[in-house]
Every structure is written in structure tokens, then in C-alpha cells.
Amino acid sequence: MRLVILGGGESGVGTAILGKKKGYDVFVSDFGKIKDSYKEVLIINGIAWEEGKHTEDLVLNADLVMKSPGIPDKSPIVKQLKSKGIAVISEIEFAAPFTKALTVGITGSNGKTTTTMLTYHLLKTAGLNVGLAGNVGKSFAWQVADNNYDFYVIELSSFQLDGIVDYRPDIAIITNISPDHLDRYDYKYQNYIESKFRITMNQTEEDFLIYDANDEAILEWLSKNKVKAKLIPFSLTDEFTEGAYIKNNKMEVKINHEEFTMDTEYIALEGKHNLKNAMAATSVAKILQIRKETIRESLSNFQGVEHRLEKVLKIQNVQYINDSKATNVNSVFFALDSMTTPTVWIVGGVDKGNDYHELMSLVREKVKAIVCLGVDNKKIIDAFGNVVDIMVEVTSMNEAVRMAQRLSEKGDTVLLSPACASFDLFESYEDRGRQFKQAVKNL
């Protein structure tokens, strides 16, 4: 069996290692450059590869193709493969049959990384033999090749879900759905929603689907489609006989005739959106019958995720916050909503079809100045030009941070929450966040 892998990044190289181990004839093809560290791994493992091109003779003779999530279905080589009837799948789909582990699959437009890390933290603290995979941690396929975990907590993007056929998580979470990545879905929101719900398409009556019961897109989809999995809702406002909710500043989780309660003030993560993430992760812990003391301890000592509302430094009584992971409007909404002081907002990057109108009332109420950090800021200026008094355009992170310092005064917050992808000026949202933190330390 010839396995061709498109993309020589973390998921591509992980799949190559697992494929080789399982006796496939493996070839890795990357249209860009492959990092030196990954090349070394491929060479050590005797796996053939190419970079800077897709050689048709070497790709189109595949029996099976694993495509990295970053490569769109519209790319010419993928179209050619599909026209020849060659199956193109994701790393998760390829690796899942090679492990007997119970998997928790987590998707959503926002909150999925925090929920994934918190769920992993809960399971690990409970002493379970658990791996962390998907968009965070080491590639799922690589871990299936090298480790023997009993559980996996996997963060799944819509792109990874687009490439599944038979994969079914034992426990699935949809944190929320809001317009994102619409450039990959023909600018049709419905296509993106359908993509997210692929997480439950193969689930059975023995499986669980945990979801936000106040999310319009989720509720509408569930009202029109049948789900076999057992539904476990969570909500900040509604109560359930089975599910998770907040009542009188207590988190209550009821699953399998068992109840767990905890005062919200002891939950380490701040903000309403993080209460939702905590309810989702705790629901998993309850399904897996983790002890209440362990859950309490884990929720009270969890440190959060880098680049997600991460407090960097306080300088001259101004708090600098790195929320570089906020690559869409919905995450910025949560960030601005949790601000309690006048805010200088650093925003901008590659727009993925954003509609900024839902931020209007928050921007009016909380934002005193906007620093636009991007190559093309027209949409942001058009949206907020009449809403805030001061708007400035910059083209580097150092400039953005220095400008924000000038515009802020004692008691203010400087918030990097870009609402956009980072690829115009940075390598990734992590690179953008690290540059922000460095620039703040240099002040």
C-alpha cells in the first residue's frame, strides 16, 4: 500500500512514522519547505520526501493520501487526487484504527484549546495514562506509533474533521460555533457548521456529545438533525436534570445520577467563557468517574493557556494582556467582555471574513483607543472609526506596543486581541504573542 502524505509538518511527519511502522510504502511531499528537525526524523526513519513541489508521478500513484489540515481542498493536487478517486483523509482518521484508546475529541470556534488542556490536566491529575494530541501537543499519529496510552484528549479543527470517514470519539465536545475560516467554506456559514458536527456523525448510543446549550448555531443544528450519542448540555443560565450549569455562583454537574458541585470562586480560570470550558471538561471527568477531590484540585490549580488572555506585565500600573490566540471576532468578544478597566486594543492581521458589528457595544463601553496592527486595516477603520476617539496604524509589534503605552494611563489595560490570522506580519499566532511579550518586556 502506497501512502502519500501532503505536508511535512507535525501531523505529516507523525503520520509518516506510523505509516512506516505499519508497513506502508510512505512518501512525504510538501509544496513549501520542511523544517530541518522534521527532515532529520524522515531521514533517520528512511522515509522518502520532497519539498518545494508536488511531483505528480510520485503523488498520483497513491493508494491513500493523508493531507495536512492547512492544505485546502481547492488546491490543484488535492483536486487531481479526488478526480482519480484516491481517498484523501486526515491524520486523525489514519491513526485512529491503530489504537484501542478511549478518545475525547474537542472542537469549537473558541475555547477548544483551553478545554482540551483543562480536560487533559484533569485526566492526568487523576493518574490516567493519557496523551494530548491534535492541534496541541504532539501529533496523534506519532503518539499512536510511539506510545501506548489508554486515553487521548484531541483538539480537532474543522479542517481535521473534514478529513474523517469512520473516526468516532467516545466523548465529543463542541464548545461553541461562530463564523470562522469562512474563506475555506465558500463563505457559507452553514458549511462550516456542518463541518463541526462531523465530530458526532459516527458516534453510537454508548458515546457522549457535550455541548453549549446556549449556542444558537448548535441548537439549530440539533433541532434539525438526529444524534445517536447521549447529549450532555452545559449552560450559564439554564438548569438540567443531566448536564452542567451555574446556579448561585456554584458549578453543578449531574451525570449518571451523580452530582458534582464547586464554588465558582475557586476555579482558577477567570471569565464567563472559562466557566463554560470548565463545565465541559468537568463533564468528561464525571463520565470517566474521576474522584470529586481530584476534579476540585485540578480546577483550582489549572494555569490556563499561553496566548489566551495571558497577563504579561504591569508597567506604571497599566496591565498588558496577550490574547494573540484570538483569531476571530467571537474570541475578541470574550476578551473585551472580561475587561474591567479602560482598554487600549491592539487588533488586526489577515481578515477571514470578519463581521465586527457584534463588538460595537463592547468597544463603545470599554475601548479608549485602537492600534491597528496589520497590512490592510481598512475594514477595522471603517467599522470603528466613528466609535473610538483615537485610531492609529502600525506595521510592527514594537511600534504597536510603544504606541499603546503612549495612549494608556494609570489603571488602563493594553490588550492584544487581534480578531485576525497572523500571517501578514508573523509566522503564527504564537510568534505574534511572543513578539508582544518581548516588546512589553523591552518597554
State mean pLDDT (0 to 100 scale): 94
**Any idea of the CATH topology of the largest domain?**
UDP-N-acetylmuramoyl-L-alanine:D-glutamate ligase
Shape annotation: globular
- Spatial sequence of strands, sheet with the most strands: 7-8-6-9-10-11-12-13-14
Structure, described:
With 443 residues, this protein is an alpha/beta fold. It folds into three domains: 2-89, Rossmann fold, CATH 3.40.50; 93-301, 3-Layer(aba) Sandwich (UDP-N-acetylmuramoyl-L-alanine:D-glutamate ligase); 310-441, Protein-Tyrosine Phosphatase, Chain A (Alpha-Beta Complex), CATH 3.90.190.20. It is built from 17 helices and 20 strands. It has helices at 10-21, 36-44, 56-59, 76-83, 91-95, 112-125, 140-146, 158-162, 189-197, 216-224, 272-287, 292-301, 329-337, 360-366, 378-384, 397-407, 429-441, and strands at 2-6, 25-30, 48-51, 64-67, 87-89, 102-107, 130-134, 151-155, 171-174, 208-212, 230-235, 243-247, 250-255, 258-263, 310-315, 318-322, 343-347, 367-373, 390-394, 413-416. The chain has a nine-stranded mixed sheet, covered by helices on one side. A six-stranded mixed sheet has the order 15-16-20-17-18-19. A five-stranded parallel sheet has the order 3-2-1-4-5, sandwiched between helices. Helix 6 crosses helix 11 and helix 16 (397-407) crosses helix 17 (429-441).
Task: Give a quick rundown of the structure.
The chain has 443 residues and is α/β, with parallel strands linked by helices. The chain has helices spanning 10-21, 36-44, 56-59, 76-83, 91-95, 112-125, 140-146, 158-162, 189-197, 216-224, 272-287, 292-301, 329-337, 360-366, 378-384, 397-407, 429-441; strands spanning 2-6, 25-30, 48-51, 64-67, 87-89, 102-107, 130-134, 151-155, 171-174, 208-212, 230-235, 243-247, 250-255, 258-263, 310-315, 318-322, 343-347, 367-373, 390-394, 413-416.
